[in-house]
Amino acid sequence: MNPTRRTILGASAAGLVAAALAACSSGAEGGGAGSGDPVTIGFVAVGPEGAWRQANEQNIQDTFTEDAGYTLKYAPATNLDQKSQIDAFTSFIDEGVDLILLSATEGSGWEESLGRAQEAEIPVILIDRGIEPDDTELYATRLAPDNVAVSTSVAEWAKSTFPDGAKYFVLEGPAGVSVVNERNEGWAQAMEGESAFTDLGSQTANWSTEEAKSVFETVLKSNGNDVQLVFAQNDEMGLGAAQAVQEAGLTPGEDVKIATIDGTQAALEALSEGTLSFVAEYNPLFGEQALEAVGTVLEGGEVEPYIQIESTTFDSPEAADEALPDRKY
Amino acid sequence: MSTDATSRTSMLRTLLHRPYFWGLIAIALLLAVNSLKDPSYLAIGYNANTGSLVGNVIDILRAAAPIAMISVGMCLVIATAGIDLSVGSLMAVAGAVSMELLASAGGSAGAALAALGLALLLGAVLGAVNAVLISVVGLQPFISTLVMMLAGRGLAKVITGGQNTAASNETFRWIANGYVLGLPVVFLLAVLIVIAVGLLVRRSALGLMIEAIGMDPRAARLAGVNRRGLLFAVYIASGALAAVAGIFASASVMTVDVSNTGYQLEMDAILAVVIGGTSLAGGKFNITGAAIGALLIATLDKTVVFLGISSSATPAFKAIVIIALCLLQSQRVRDLFRARRAKTAPVTSDAPKEAVAA
């Protein structure tokens, strides 16, 4: 008796889920434009992290609209937690979406989930964040600005600004994230063999302004204020370091030059005021390129395993002033 | 002369039996290690421009202030045999609401006061929600505050629209960056609040009643202790103190980072309370200990940076220090040491006395 009852219960539960799913998908189809079935895309996203991420994810959401023939399901991570991303990823597979866009909060640990997507024949396109180990078999393509190139551009600027060398400190993002590894790599490669430059060390400030201020105020003390250059791996940390420099009675931009990556509006304003000295853009607006890649992949076409997004750099207040009026993020 | 010496040894002995004794030792050790790296580590200078004392120790005091706030709240909650996992998220909520208000209301002192009041009120209200879930609905504190931890960060994101909001207001900024008599305002405020809470619970029967419901709720009820009222009081206090911590944290850079402000600080607070000698099982609590625990965690954080320990090794380094400290505090481990010493030397009568918490 008992087993039968359980099956009936199970069946009715499954029925309920199916009905709910059907309701969902029919709702989605109803919203689509008249021209054929809209393509359903699951976007496993990072969520609130900073202005850069906000611009990037908003741009993706604005590009894959229903007018363009897409239904985008946006699933941001809870507190940058990878587990919540894997859960969202898995439920997109179960749901049977047509394609998954993934911005991984952490690089490693994606093999199993990506393998399952492959079995279900759902192509995956990586947005910005890469995976580790970087197995290109597991995904269709990755769209991102080149972190190594961006941080190399910061190092090149440092070399030209300090021809006689300088003592520098690096404010990193959280350890283990692919972006951090790549930004370190570009910087380290360009700085290798530069005997005039002294590496005072590096420390994580978890992308946060508050932590960067606290970390850098201690770094200044432990080096007797003898630091000429800070390489902050994102804008927020650079702005925090600038506050620490001011509190120490020094002038950012003169005593300590701060270079950051991202190019958010707040950073460009600071560059225009001279508190930051160099901002390398890490272009977040590549919805159009993503749209193109998604189209090709869904038609069964071949795409390059890595599509590089072009970025620029800002090295003076004038350059910042020029770019500020139409900065979108 | 001899009486002076004996009174000094007896003072030392009572200090040794204070639960936070090992926390103080750990702080001293960390400072000593830093001084080894740089002999002038403990030096304190004077900055005539800002009228402030400058030094690594001052930085530590400033960094300890927000942790001390949530630790004191956590200490009271833990004494009732509860736990408050939502303090970190409530910090983000308080930061979010004050930054949003300041961003639209501008730089006047009135706006700063309004932001302060609103943040404190919201912290207290969310603390009261915790209290309702626990004392009226009867959910476990762990679950109720876990829900609030998730909901709180969500609420912070809703308040700022998912963005990290920045604002400028000199009065508000002064709270975290200003100086009075050369000392950081944020530290003085934290000390005042710790003393006020300490006096409130120890100079009245409040502390005893909180301990009573933590030790044995049934006996406390039979003795006529109002459990529900007390639970409301401690969770509201914890929420409001978390709001103070959130104000300190966001005022320091005048930015709220909805994902990072207060992130995982509930763990720091719990650690600080445990280091301070309050048992997670509830009952006897020690506010001074919690404040010293907070100071230790701030010292540890600053030491990691000062010594230049690499980012990937930082959590391991912190874990090692804390495990060592917990081992030293554990009665069993200390008994083990004592037994070994007893084998080699005759024991001086050293019955473990329950130290009365300050």
TrEMBL record, chain A:
An annotated Gene Ontology molecular function: carbohydrate binding
Q: Which residues form the signal peptide?
A: 1-22
Instruction: Kindly indicate whether the keyword Ligase belongs to this entry.
Output: no
Please give the superkingdom of this protein's source: Bacteria
SUPFAM superfamilies membership: Periplasmic binding protein-like I
**Localization terms from the record:** Cell envelope
Q: What UniProt keywords are attached to this protein's entry? A: Signal
For the Periplasmic binding protein domain, which residue ranges apply?
41-301
- Record-level GO cellular component terms: cell envelope
InterPro entries to which the protein is assigned, alphabetical: Peripla_BP_I (IPR028082), SBP_2_dom (IPR025997), TAT_signal (IPR006311)
Q: Which family does it belong to?
A: Belongs to the bacterial solute-binding protein 2 family.
Q: What is this protein called?
A: ABC transporter substrate-binding protein
Native species? Candidatus Brachybacterium intestinipullorum
